[in-house]
Design goal:
Length: 244
C-alpha cells in the first residue's frame, strides 16, 4: 500500500511516503510557517523520489493537531483535495501521538508532548512510548505553563522527589521548567510518526473520500477558534476567541 502522510500543525510542514515496496521517503519544510508555498512541492518531491504518481496513493494521512490554526486549515484543505482527486482513503491522526511515535528513538516511557497555546498556556498530551506501541494516556488539552510538572505528577509519569528529568517532546519554542528534559520536534519527522502509528493498527477504520466524510473531517483545535466560514457566519455563528 502506498501511504502519504502530511502534518502542518507545527511551524514546519512534514511529509512522508511509504511505498508498496517498503521504501520510506521523508521531507520537511525549510521555511517557518510556509506551508502554503511548500506543501505541494514537498509532496511532489517525494512522489518523484518514489517514482509514483499521485493517482497511485492508496491512503492519505493528515495530522489533526492541535497546533497552528492556519497550518491545520492548509493541511486539511490540501489532503482533502488530493484524496478526492486520487480516490484515496483519507484518515486523520493526532499530531501529538505522531510526535511521540516520531520521537521513539530519542525517548521512552512516560512523556509529555507540548506546544505553545499562547496566553501563558500550552497544548499538552501525555503518552507512553514503548518499542512496539504508542499509548495516549491523556488526550491533548490546554493547561497553564506553570502546571506542566504538576500535570505530569498527577498522571503518575513523573516524580520530582526522585530528581529525574521529565521527558518532554516540544513542538514549538517555549521555555520549560528546569526539571524538564526536552526533545525538539526538529529532530524528527511527524509525518513519519503518523505512518508508524497507522501501520501498528488499532486506529479507527479507514475512511474513503465520500462527500459526507470529507465534510466531517476537521482538525482538533482544542481551543475554540475565532475564524468562521462564510456559511457559518451567515448562520450567525460567531466567536471572540483568539486565533492560534
Amino acid at each position: 500500500m502506498n501511504i502519504l502522510a502530511i502534518d502542518t500543525s507545527t511551524s514546519r510542514a512534514s511529509v512522508a511516503l511509504k511505498t508498496n515496496a517498503g521504501e520510506l521517503h521523508t521531507a520537511s519544510g525549510s521555511g517557518i510557517n510556509s506551508h502554503n508555498e511548500e506543501l505541494a512541492l514537498l509532496v511532489e518531491s517525494l512522489l518523484e523520489q518514489a517514482k509514483l504518481k499521485a493517482s497511485h496513493l492508496d491512503k492519505i494521512l493528515i495530522g489533526s493537531g492541535p497546533g497552528s490554526f492556519t497550518g491545520l486549515r492548509i493541511g486539511f484543505a490540501f489532503a482533502k483535495g488530493l484524496a478526492l482527486s486520487c480516490s484515496s482513503a483519507l484518515k486523520s491522526v493526532c499530531s501529538f501521538k505522531a510526535a511521540a511515535a516520531a520521537g521513539r528513538s530519542c525517548v521512552a516511557g512516560g512523556v509529555l508532548v507540548i506546544a505553545d497555546a499562547r496566553r501563558e498556556e500550552v497544548f499538552c498530551a501525555a503518552m507512553r512510548i514503548d518499542a512496539d506501541a504508542i499509548s495516549m494516556l491523556r488526550s491533548p488539552e490546554i493547561i497553564s505553563k506553570v502546571r506542566i510538572v504538576d500535570y505530569a505528577e498527577d498522571l503518575g509519569i513523573y516524580n520530582r522527589a526522585e530528581s529525574e528529568k521529565l521527558s518532554v517532546i516540544l513542538l514549538s519554542e517555549i521555555s520549560l521548567p528546569p526539571n524538564c528534559q526536552a526533545v525538539a520536534y526538529g529532530n524528527f519527522n511527524l509525518a513519519e510518526g503518523m505512518i508508524f502509528i497507522d501501520l501498528l493498527g488499532g486506529e479507527e477504520a479507514d475512511k474513503f473520500n465520500t462527500a459526507e466524510w470529507l465534510y466531517s473531517l476537521k482538525p482538533n483545535y482544542v481551543r475554540e477558534v475565532a475564524a468562521r466560514t462564510i456559511a457559518e457566519r451567515s448562520a450567525g455563528k460567531h466567536s471572540n476567541a483568539p486565533v492560534l
